[in-house]
Design brief:
The protein is globular, with a radius of gyration of 19 Å. By secondary structure, the chain is an alpha/beta fold. α1 packs parallel to α8 and α3 packs across α4. A hairpin with a 6-residue loop joins β6 and β7. The strands form three sheets. It has a six-stranded mixed β-sheet. Strands 2-1-12-13-14 form a five-stranded parallel β-sheet, with helices on both faces.
């Protein structure tokens, strides 16, 4: 107590904590460590807000949010979807123009040869359609194998996934940008995951909308990530933290590099920033 009343609460290092999921908050087995859970709980108890910002669409994110007992807003689908976990509803959703996507794929294939394709359908229950030859990890998440790529375009989609039989992710993304970057956005969001998005869409599209709803600003945000699809998030936030396992392109622009996702890299930073509050 002071003569004039209670001492003011210590200022928060950052009001908003934005975390990617795969390779960042999640370990390789898809779980979140007890240490990282505790560090996030300490930060939120101090008054900070935690927001998940992921390339995964809502159907591939909901089970993780439920496991965290996460009731707030999440940014999914590379910024295309702003989802209220507590109310289980989409607040905003942006879809990819299917005609432009088809044209972009045709241009990329003219340059690079045949592609293997998948697509994420829009909506809370939207499946991921997986075309012939596309490599994906089978599991409990909704995926629907298809035989004909024409089926990709029968309903609205948020994004299209590309794979190439010989080009690696960075090389494929480079070809896609060079040949179709005037039609669609292109990003690399994980091993074997090159994505075509609505032109201009990034994680910041959804993050900035969500931050406004939470009353937070870029200059009070710390962001954690591991892949090139987090570049815009790092540019927007006051402080960008790359995981030790991050893509070199992201490490090059990070304000800080922490331990890997397997070694509680998020907790290492949050304990330092919020542990003494």
């Amino acid at each position: 107590m002071t003569a004039s009343g209670p001492a003011p609460a210590p200022a928060l290092p950052y009001q908003l904590i934005a975390t990617d999921l795969d390779g960042t908050l999640l370990r390789e087995d898809g779980t979140i460590s007890d240490r990282t859970r505790a560090a996030l709980a300490t930060a939120t108890a101090a008054g900070a807000a935690h927001i998940v910002v992921t390339g995964r669409a809502v159907p591939w994110t909901r089970h993780i949010l439920e496991g965290l007992d996460y009731r707030g807003i999440a940014v999914c689908g590379q910024g295309a979807q702003v989802y209220h976990a507590g109310e289980r509803r989409l607040l905003t959703s942006v879809t990819l123009d299917r005609q432009l996507a088809g044209l972009a794929i045709a241009k990329i294939e003219t340059e690079a040869g045949s592609l293997r394709l998948a697509a994420s359908r829009d909506g809370i229950e939207g499946e991921v359609l997986v075309g012939p030859g596309y490599r994906y990890k089978e599991g409990p998440l909704p995926a629907l194998p298809i035989e004909d790529h024409a089926e990709l375009w029968t309903a609205p989609v948020n994004k299209v996934y590309l794979q190439h039989p010989t080009l690696d992710d960075d090389a494929l993304a480079q070809v896609a940008r060079a040949t179709a970057g005037d039609l669609v956005g292109v990003t690399v969001s994980g091993p074997g995951i090159v994505e075509l998005l609505p032109l201009g869409l990034t994680k910041v599209t959804g993050l900035s909308l969500a931050a406004r709803r939470l009353g937070a600003k870029a200059d009070s945000t710390i962001a954690f990530g591991d892949m090139p699809n987090d570049l815009t998030m790092f540019a927007w936030a006051a402080h960008g933290v790359a995981m030790a396992n991050a893509h070199p392109e992201l490490k090059a622009v990070a304000d800080e590099v922490t331990a890997s996702n397997e070694d509680d890299g998020i907790a290492v930073v949050l304990e330092r920033l919020y542990g003494a509050l």
